[in-house]
Amino acid sequence: MVRLGAVSFATRHVGKAMLWHGVLVGVHGNLRGGAPGANESNGSYSLDWEASGESFFDGFDFLPEDVNHGAVDFVSSYADAQLAGVARISGSHAILRTGRRSTKAFKRMSPKIATKKSWKHFLAAVHFKHLPWGCGVWPSFFTLGEGKWPAAGEMDILEYVNDGTSMTSFHTSKECRLDEAKVNKYRSMPDANSKGNDNSNYNCLTTYCATCKSLGCAPNAMPLLTGQQMADRPGVFAMERTASFTKIFFIPSWAIPADLDAGRPTPEAWDQWIISYYPFGDSESTCPEPDDIMAKQRFVLQIELCGDWASKVWGDSAVCSRMGPFFDETATKDKTFINSTLSPKRCRAVDPLAENVPEQDCCHQFITDADGDYRSAQYLHENAFFKIAWFKVFTTASPILRPLNASDL
To answer: 381, 363, 369, 307: which is closest to 97 by C-alpha?
Structure first.
């Protein structure tokens, strides 16, 4: 889930409305109007699965594996998560947060959970009251296909590091380039991964390595938001996956549709809240077998720390590079070894895909804060947590097929 680059955020007011992810909010109703098109939702959605209240975590597995070379020690069960202080129920909300330093070197306790169940076609919605943010913090909410990664597909619904902006993106090992005109059907959605992909737009092919330039496709309505900005603006992130497209929505808490509240959502009426659109079916000439581009998907929530992305771009942030030990820009550029005996409070930004030296890395040193010099524990406790009201997945009934009559011919 490595990402390159960042897009600045700017809030503009239009009367009493505001541009949010490039979407005009402060108004109600469907901005596009009219009947659903050929690629719109079919049938009515009904609730299939829900996580809420005291039983919120019952439908999740806690995953201990860290595939991003981070400063985390992921717990392996809810019982362990409670002991480590990284997962709990607080009133009507579920909390996932970073915890104490681990007994493992350069690690801090953190949660990574995945739904026990998986879905092929669905509408999923999560009401976030707070999102994690901060230097060294790499939160993500994404789907992961059953099978080999990335062939089974991965859809990143939200993901960001340090004080950078969040974006959605899709990853596959299959040849798949989205049709540019169709991507921008609802509003302008430039590819936020274009620069990292050597200016190749809407190419979903993904290969991660230190020098790779295949980061996946990332159509996003602008402007993007930082984690801190999103934490201050609670709302619902939703994803609709059909046989021909995927839509990502963000709906502010004050604008949650009545149909969603009533448990009978009609996402074809939510066009004004679309922040990302993946028209796989309308891109079939350059994205073959659109329904197979994503296998059945599980949902994953995690708080990674440092690792392949946040460590690597530490020096790109004027805020983060001033936190923790002294950031040595020259040593970072030249990959020069820093003698910790001679220079105990110096560090550089390390790409873990190229070097496994957490003791040299600014991010790892700040996050684990062995001597308590940087007050990282308090900083993370105040900022690095998910607060979730509910998580719901809706599905549609399979269409009933009947034999053809003569009148049908």
So the answer is: 381
Beta pairing class for 122-130 and 235-241: antiparallel
Contact, 56 vs 49, CB < 8 A?
no
Element holding 382 (H helix, E strand): helix 376-383
Helices (H), 114-179: none
pTM of the shown model: 0.87
> Counting Cβ atoms within 10 Å, is residue 225 exposed (0-12), middle (13-18) or buried (19+)?
buried
First to last CA, the chain: 50
Where are any strands of DSSP class E within 160-312?
A: 169-171, 206-207, 214-215, 235-241, 246-252, 274-278, 297-305
Contact status, residue 127 vs residue 236, Cβ threshold 8 Å? yes
**Closest to 49 measured CA to CA, from 128, 129, 118:** 118
Q: Is 272 helix (H, G, I), strand (E, B) or coil?
A: helix
pLDDT digits (tens, 9 = 90+) for 20-71: 455 544 333 333 333 333 345 556 999 999 999 999 999 999 999 999 999 9
Would you tell me how many other CB atoms lie within 10 Å of the CB of residue 115?
21
Token readout for 300 is 């994953």
For the stretch 307-334, pLDDT in tens is 999 999 999 999 999 999 999 999 999 9
Tokens (6 digits) for 287: 């994205």
